Amino acid sequence: MKRFVLISILLCSASCFAQDSTYTRRMIAALTSKNFWGRGYTKNGMGRAADYLSAEFKALGLSSFIGDYKQYFSYPVNTFPAKMRVTLNGKKLIPGKDFIVSNESKGLKVNSNLEMIDSLHFKGVQNLQVVLKDKLTWSVATEVRDYTLIEVIRKFFTERPKDVNVEIENHFIENFETSNVCGYVKGTTYPDSIVMITAHYDHLGGMGAETYFPGANDNAAGVASLLSLAKYYAAHPQPYSVGFICFAGEEAGLVGSKYFTEHPLMALNKIKFLINLDLVGTGEKGMTVVNGSVYPKAFELLNKINAEHNYISKITVRGKAANSDHYFFTEKGVPAFFIYTQGGPSAYHDIFDRPETLPLTEYNDLFKLIVDFNKKLMVQ
User: Fold this and answer.
1) Rounded to two decimals, what is the model's pTM?
2) In this structure, is the dihedral angle defined by the CA atoms of residues 66, 68, 69 and 72, taken in order, positive or negative?
């Protein structure tokens, strides 16, 4: 009987420590669904996602730094909410699959012949430009330029583009209102000291009325991992407080994290360490730690834990880089790592970054590595 009880306790401990894969998959599926429309700037995608995350924070039992978990701010953004039609050489193109419109483009309705500049670049009337590309990669712009640039997949055209019919609508929003979603689990011994987990929940949104960018790896996977960690720490409070921030506006230039560091909801010097998760849905080729060489002792500790448990096959170190939401915290003196995984599908900033093709190869091991790392930080 004693043996049975001991085995039961051990199994329970192991299951409590492991990430809830069903929960993780459910969160990724929800965040990449049409309901949130790419967690962007049309059809209230980002707003709906923020509501969903704040409700999830509440359901998990997180405390709030501020009222409804939301830290509101605004910034300018160029959007494409409606018409998105391009016909090239008489062939109707599919938005996202066959073409994208450059994020800084103005709206345009025109039928134009195309003049060849070189084998890949063509121009029409009214500052219309057409470029042939091997891969379509979209982004977010905070301004509008005086041209309309259409990028077209090169492999579909054996003859050069000669004429194009375009009907594209843009809408520039000077003050797009959104919010960071912030919560924490209070520490049991040193509640004023905090370890922070962050991930951006925004993505690219939609291009036209019928095409959206799911953003499974970028960054539904990071948010789902953050939520799984929040679920774990809510059930297992630690000596330090553990904070969680889902940032908006990362794709527009790290806007949400910059705003937070300029309007912090707690003293930044109380943050003992920050781990930012972005692009963590793969791992076949290991993972990379940005700022690893900036904080060598912390990186050595991470590597030591990983070697002891054989979590991740390879951890690559990088230096300082302004490539995700850790950056402005580091600039303010907060020690931080930005972790991303490698390998798996090559989909990035396109319509093919979908949950059904996301392998989550090292998801559970990364979860355990972060828990172990944080545990060591809290006793040093």
Assistant:
1) 0.94
2) negative
